[in-house]
Amino acid sequence: MKRILFLLAVVTAAIAFPFLMGHGQAPPAANGTYKYISTATTTTVKPTSGYLHTVTINGGTAGVVTLYDIAAAGCTGTPASGQFAAIETIGATNPVTLIYDLATKNGICVVTAAATDVSVSFN
């Protein structure tokens, strides 16, 4: 019986430890917002550090959607640095949501190479 209780305590501690120490993945805050993009453009989604939750490709023209971790001042044309994702979209009939759940150090910048219909949710 002591062995079972000990094993149960070890398993419980192993599961709970990351969350108690702040290393577990927390859900995004309830005060999140979104940015809608529907043209070929460079968009400052969040000008400073933040939390990228999802990118939803709703449809539109097939093309590449590129994500950058860069401050607003660098989010012009094709940013020189900070790229962390390039999403190739396939057009109007295949909506998809990509979950990122990651913190950005500088900001969130999105470049759409075509008139792709995109929604970006963030905090």
Characterise this structure.
The protein is built from one helix and eight strands. The strands form two sheets. A four-stranded antiparallel sheet has the order 1-8-3-6, with no helix packed on it. Strands 2-7-4-5 form a four-stranded antiparallel sheet, with no helix packed on it. It starts with a helix and ends with a strand. It has one domain: Sandwich (Jelly Rolls). The protein has one helix at residues 2-20, and strands spanning 33-37, 41-46, 50-60, 64-68, 83-88, 96-104, 108-112, 116-122. The protein has 123 residues and is an alpha+beta fold. The longest helix has 19 residues, at 2-20.
Order of helices and strands: HEEEEEEEE
Report on the biggest sheet: 4 strands, antiparallel
Indicate how many domains the architecture comprises: 1
Alpha carbon gap, first and last residue: 48 Å
Counted beta strands:
8
Radius of gyration: 19 Å
Helix content: 10-25%
Tell me what portion of residues adopts beta-strand conformation: 35-45%
CATH architecture descriptor text: Sandwich
Number of helices: 1
Average pLDDT number: 83
C-alpha geometry:
globular
Low-confidence stretches: 4-8, 16-25
Query: According to CATH, what is the class?
Result: Mainly Beta
Strand line-up in the sheet with most strands: 1-8-3-6
What's the CATH topology name? Jelly Rolls
